[in-house]
Structure formats: structure tokens, C-alpha cells
Amino acid sequence: MVEEGLLRDMCRMLAHRGPDDEGFYVGEGAALGHRRLAVLDIARGHEPMHNEDRSLWLVFNGEIYNFQELKALLLKKGHQFYTLGDAEVILHLYEEFGERCLEKLRGMFALAIWDEAKRRLFLARDRLGIKPLYYAFLQGKIIFASELKALLLSPLISRKLDLAALDAYLTFRYIPAPCTIFSDIRKLPPAHYLTYEVREGQKGRISIGRYWDLPYAPGPRKSKSYYAQRLLQELKEAVRLRLMSEVPLGAFLSGGVDSGAIVALMSEASDAAVKTFSVGFEDEAFDERPFAERVAEDFSTEHETLVVKGEAPPLKEVAWYLDEPLADAASIPTFRMAKLAKKFVTVVLSGEGADELFAGYSQYKVARVLENLRVPWSSSAGIILSHLLYQDGYLGRGLAFLGFLSDPPQAFFRLMAVFTEEEKEDLLIDEVYKEIKAGPRAILEARRRLRAEPGSWMEKIFRRDLKTWLPDDLLLKGDKMTMAWGLEQRLPYLDHKLVEFALNIPVDLKVRLFGEKYILREALKGRLAEDILSRPKHGFSVPWANWLKGELAPVCERLMSRKYLVEQGFFKYAFLEKFFSRRRALSNLYRRRQFWALFSFQLWYDVFVKGEGKRPD
Fold first, then answer.
1. Measured between alpha carbons, how far is 524 from 526 in angstroms, rounded to an integer?
2. Is this model's pTM higher than 0.90 or not?
């Protein structure tokens, strides 16, 4: 029995993602709802959308950049269209090729197709995981949505936390797919599809498959100039494709190489001035305005900047839009920059993904240095050091890391973990830690997957970051923070054809001891000013320590208090008491990461468990 009232409530919960239109299909055995952000075919693109005989129905979030080419193919095969946009092309493509239609799509998407005749539901998510897709399969029924909070409206779904997901969060600061923080809800992983079928007199059944994977096909090495020229060609094409729009379009601009390149190529491809947007801070240590303004001036963009003057951020509102616990402080400036951009445009291009493709993080340098290192000791040395040394200091982490070097995946995760195993045992109450330890462990699965990836240690880490860190942290943050304002974010670096090429660029052309993203900088010579090209990575930092000394201090004190922790039943107050009693408690990277992970989780818990998911005032 389809609950139409629940469907409408779920759509209202997602109104921010699609402020322009609402549509419903209610049939025998299935119901689809859609909130539309109108970007293409504004007059006709109402969803749910149907094929010629109304046997197939589609709801879709995203953009298909090669839809005109695919439409031409389908017209030759006799398909008829009643709209001019990309959504209907997906329907006819599925009608023609079935599940294999996904192989032909070039874009970002989360989609659902209901086949009335076969009583089959088909869900799919794009290759890199730009668009989210959550689902719950309970009592033979399936419920799905673009955001977790919509699923929580169903009475079938409990708010019981998944302790394996909590374990993963405390290790990575995000929750890798297919888990979510709630036991009843799952994320469809990137590059996967799900089929749900209902057979007469039986409960529905689901099956999940993968339709694409990161390629590994190293061929004969070519010249540096070849890789640089081909990379520029692929990036120009990816940017060009993402300029299709019937609504105003712009770009996020930080002043770094990644976003600067996007703005440069947009300016080349467009007759009109590009609209660009930045966030700045009064505190110069966090302020990138001068660099962003320099790039904006070089390309004569229409530049808008929001200056944050020390006021506390809307942290609970950010937590509500994020859906899941996520300890990424860059969510805050992204949320504010999206709000600014929405006043002027409906679509923005962004430089997300370049760091993962071209080695923009410091850990890639560490991995490169240690790639061929052979050590004369076993990993038991690391186990001994990890027990002898307290893990939150640079010395303790560093020595334990060196101790594990005979097992590179274990050494890598030891260095990158927010909380080590020893720290989680100190942090979590005994009953919770015992239950976590007895269940599936995210860190063990992560190590297994890293070892199973093809290629060198460096290549394994690249692929791991593209499959987990990118979709489950950066892309989740980017989608949720932009769609909070009904703003669509497009990511040229994550065009799958560019990704396929970039993965086979030799590692030594990406990672250098001094400087990041070497081959990308080579490709952009002559298009960006030399001081921008040579500028080291800055990162999207925020002065959260200053915020927490001000008006957010009472919030922090309440969420970290003994009373709150005892009622919550996960964390030991003694751990936090010891943590804050240390001199210069937030003086190093590891302590800051640990504090922000705990504080972010407490904010999320306050909104979604204690606050029952109601939007904060």
C-alpha cells in the first residue's frame, strides 16, 4: 500500500533542493515524488517523467552533459520526445539498453525509474558519487530519497544508531558508503545501481551491482608535454560541457590553482563575463581574498565576496543540512558562499576533485618518499610503540607510523586516523566499545580494500581517496551545502573521462617533494599568473577556535558536559576532562581534529536524535 501522505511530506522535507516545482506519480505498488530545480527545459521539464506509453516513470537529480548526442541516437531508433531536456533522454535510454544505459551517461546523477509492467524499481548513482542517494529496505519495502532526513519521516525507520558507522566516523571523520549513521538506512555507493522487484504474493527483493570502476591501464610512458597538453584538452572539454544552462551560471573562486583554472577556462569559452564568488575572513590567517581578487581581476569576472567578521556560524543549521555527522569545518564557508552565490546564479562550477586526482595533499608526499622504503622490522614494533606512546602528539603518531612501515596500509591509516584504536578504547564507554569491537570494523575493511587496489602504494592511496574520502566527505559536503540554497554545483575535474585519463598519468608527474599537482600546474602555464600557479595549497580553513571562545562557548560546554554525555551514553567524560586539562589542548593537528570530530558529532546528535531531525530555529 503506497502512502501518498508520506510521499508528500518527504518532498516537503526536500523543498530546498528543488524550490521551482513539485510533482508526484502514484501507481499500483509504487509512488515517486520530485522537487525540481529548473536549469534546463524550464517550461516542459516537469517530473516525474514518462515514456511514450507511460509504462516507465522517472525522477532524477543532476545533469547529463551529453544528452543531445544521446537524444540524436535515440531519435534514429524511433523514440519520440515531448520535452527538450536531459531527463527524458535517460528514460528512453533505459527503454533501449536497460541497465547498460548508465555506461552511456556523462554527468552527475541520482535517478529512479519505475517499470509498471515488470513491477521493477531501478535506482542508480553517478560514477564518482557527486549526487547522493539514500535508501531503506525494510519489511520487503524500499524507500529512497536524496537526503537522509526525508527517510526519517517513515514510521518504518528507527533512529537506532549504527555503532559500526560511529566507529568509522571516529576513524575517518566521515562515514563510508554503504553505511550511514542510522542502522536502517544505507547509501548507494558511487557507480552502483540497485534493482528492486516485487513478485506476485512475495515480498520485494533487492540486488545491487557496479557498472563502472576506476580504470587501471598503465601504458607506455609518454612525454611530460603530452600529458600536460592532453590534460588541458580534457579539462577544457569538461568545463565547456558544464556551461549548458538556461539560468545564470558562475563559479566558486578561492584564489588557488584548482578554481583559478576553472575560471580561466570558463572565461575562454564564454562571451559574457564570468560571475565569481568567494568568502573572506577578517582574520588574515584564514583570508584568501587577495588571491581570489587577483584571479578575478585577471579574467575580468563579476566578483562578489562575503566577508565573515567574527560572528558565530549557524552550526546547527549546517548540521541539519548535512544529514550525517561530518567533521569538515569547510562546510561552514561553503554554506555561506552558496548562500551568496544563489543571490546571483542558479549554477556554479567548482574545483573539487583536483587534489585527489593530482596529489594536492601532504600525505601523498609522505607516501611518495616512503614508497620504496624497505624496513628491517615487523609491524609488531608499531604495536609496541602504539601502546607505549600517547597517540595525540606528533612524536607519538610519527613513531608509531614508522613502527608500522613494514605494513604500508596499516601505517597509512595509523597516521591518518582521527582516533586510533587505543584512543577509541579510552573515549568510548566500555559497553559501546565492546559491541563495536565484536562487530564489523571499518578500519579493517579499509585496509583490505586498500591492499586490493591495483598499482603502487601511491596509486592505491589515490584510488582509495577517490572512492571514499571524496564522495563521503567532500562531495557530500558540497552537494548538501549548495543544495541547501537551491544551488547546483558542477565539478569539471570529476568528469569521468578526465578522471580516466588522469589516473594513468605517471605518479612522478603528480607528486614532487616540493610543490603539489605538478602536471596540472604545467598544463596551466600561460593561463594563470605565475604567482597563482606557484602558490602552495592553502585549504578552506576557518577560525573555529576563535568562534568557540566566543558565543559558541556555551553550546560547546553543554554538548561536552558530564550530564549530556551520561544521558547520551557513548563517550566517557573522563576522556574529555583529560583532553581539555592538557596545556595547549588544541595545539596540534591531531588534537584539533579530534575535538572537531567530537564537537561535530555532538551537534549532529543534538539536531537529529535529541531534536528528532526538526530544522533548528
1. 6
2. yes
